[in-house]
Specification:
Layout (H helix, E strand, L loop, with lengths): L5 E5 L3 H13 L3 E5 L2 H11 L3 E5 L7 H10 L8 E5 L4 H9 L4 E4 L4 H15 L7 E4 L2 E4 L4 E4 L2 E3 L3 H12 L7 H9 L8 H14 L9 E4 L3 E4 L1
Parallel strand pairs: 1-2, 1-3, 3-4, 4-5
Antiparallel strand pairs: 6-7, 7-8, 8-9, 10-11
Helix pairs in contact: 2-3, 6-7, 6-8
Amino acid sequence: MSARPAVLVVEDEAPQREVLVYNLEAEGYDVRQATSGDAAMDLAREETPDLILLDWMLPEVSGIEVCRRLKSAADTRSIPVIMISARSEEVDRVRGLETGADDYVVKPYSVVELMARIRTQLRRVRPASVGERLEHGDVAIDTVEHRVFRGGEELHLGPTEFRLLTTFLERPGRVWSRDQLLDRVWGRDVYVDSRTVDVHVGRLRKALRVSEGQGDPIRTVRGAGYALG
C-alpha cells in the first residue's frame, strides 16, 4: 500500500483542531496542521496534501479567501477542499461551494459523517487508499489483494515498486518529480536519497516488460521526473 493519504487541517481553535487531528490519525491519515490562512497556503504549496479541511473563520485571511486562492493556483487547484463552518444558511453553503470548495460541512458535525465525506473526496484523488481497482491501458492493480497484471498476466513486484506503480496509476499522465515520489511512496518523514527513486523506477520498468512486444509505459520527462503514459 502507498504512503498514507495526507490531510491538512486548517483550524485556529485548539479544541476543534485537536478533535479533528485525533480522529484523522485514528483513521490512519498523515495529518498536517495550520492555524492561519497564510500558513495553510504555504503548507499546501510546499507539501501538496491529498485533502484540506478548511475552517471558514480564520484570523486575518478567511477560509473563503484561502479556498479561492488555492483553487486559482495551478499547483493546488486539484486538492479537494472540505469547508467547515458554523454558517448554516443556504447562501453561505452556496458561497463556499462557488468559491471552489468540494464539500461543505456545518458545525456541529458528526465525526463519522465527516470521515465518510473525506473518504468520498479521497476516492477521486487517492483511489487506492479506499481499495479501488486501478487500470490504465493494459496495466491493472487490485489494491485489496495486492496483485498486479499486465496484458492479463500477473506480475510480481516488490513492495516499493508496488507503491510506485500505484502512485502512477492513480494519476495517469501526471509528471511526478523525484521529491514528490519520495514523499508519496517512502513518506514525508523518511530520508531517502533521490537517486533511490531512479533505481526503483528502473526495477518497475523491468518488471512491467512481460514480453518483448510490450513497450515501456513509464516515460522519463527530462529535468522534471516520471509519468505513466
